[in-house]
Amino acid sequence: MVQITREANTLSGTLDEIRLAHESATTTTPSHAAFTGTLDGNALTLSFPQGFGLVHNISGTLSRSSMSLQVPQDDGAIATVMVLKPGSLKTYNDAVNVVQASGRANASENEAAAASAAAAASAQESRQRIASAAEAVMKKMQAVQAGLATPPSFSDFDSHLSAARDHLADAKANAAKADREADQSVACSDAYTADSDAYTVESDAYTIDSDMLSLTSEIDSLKDAAADLDRALTESQQAATALPDYTPPQATDADQVKALINRVSLKAEAWRKKGRGYQSKVAELLKQARAVAEQAKKEHC
Questions:
Q1: Is the pLDDT of residue 202 over 90?
Q2: What confidence tier does 29 reach under pLDDT thresholds 50, 70, 90?
Q3: Element (H, E) at 33
Q4: What 3-state DSSP class applies to 24?
Q5: Which of 16, 81, 180, 223 is deepest in the core (most CB within 10 A)?
């Protein structure tokens, strides 16, 4: 918008402009500059003391229906930069509103695009988190299955319980030998040999207690793995709530996982019960061995 005051051939006024830096710009840039000038027939020259952008002088032509303004170009040519027609301040303000509305529309589009990109990034992040959690469940499930596939060995329990039976038999044999001895001192020696056999049975019992500690460690390790699997399942289920319709590549059935965890609990209890059975059996053997030895010492020493 150019507003001009004319006194004879002398001009003065202001030039106002508002623009978007480019088509997708979100903010407008207003410009305002005062000028002086001259009019010679239809030809005019406007001078901007403070400059208008990079321009200090603009030439042009003026008629009743329009004003054309030209600016020198770098190559020396003169180019028309604007053609203005008579109008009102309201017309200009309405045009300003249109430019500003375009900027706001660009801002809305940019916000919508940014929101869409953020949503896409969030969804991708959620998919990665869900897939990672599902993979963790799968790996932990495989570890638990491997643990169940290789149950504890009870061969040491069997070996040590067999040894305890043999040592009890030795105690009984030495007690019986004491009963047959004519010499009291020899009989007493046999009785103490039976007592030594009873201590050996007690050693066998301690060995089985040690076997039980090893068994308990194996059981606890498997139960810890099951507990870890249970936690991983919970974390996976929580992660999945972000994208209920997304199924990760290594998804596992929650019911199968729960069934596996329950199976671990049942197996662990069965193994623990079996180990305690060995302890009970060796305790009974030890009780018999001590009774045999004490009776032999009582009778012959």
A1: yes
A2: confident
A3: strand 28-40
A4: coil
A5: 223
Quick one: pLDDT at residue 31?
86
Residue type, 265: S
Choose among 143, 138, 130: nearest CA to 236: 130
Output the CA–CA distances (angstroms, integers) from residue 234 to 29, 133, 134, in the order listed: 55, 9, 10
282 pLDDT above the threshold of 90: yes
Q: Determine the Cα–Cα distance for residues 156 and 46; give it in Å rounded to an integer.
A: 110
19 contacts: CB under 8 Å, gap ≥ 6: 28, 29, 31, 99
pTM for this one? 0.65
Place of tokens 């053609």: 83
Instruction: Round to whole Å and give the CA distance between 160 and 155.
Output: 9
- Sign of the dihedral defined by the CA atoms of residues 174, 180, 186, 187, in that order: positive
Q: Tell me if 19 sits within 8 A of 29, measured CB to CB.
A: yes
pLDDT-derived band at 21 (thresholds 50, 70, 90) equals confident
Q: Report whether 285 contacts 168 (CB < 8 A).
A: yes
Taking residues 90-114, report their average pLDDT: 84
CB 208 within 8 A of CB 285: no
Q: What count of Cα atoms within 13 Å lies in the side-chain half-sphere of residue 115? A: 6
Closest-CA residue to 300 (of 199, 175, 171): 175
Residue 99's CB is within 10 A of a number of other CB atoms, namely 17
Mean pLDDT of the region 199-220: 97
Greatest pairwise CA separation for the chain in angstroms: 161
Nearest partner of 52 among 65, 76, 69, judged by Cα:
69
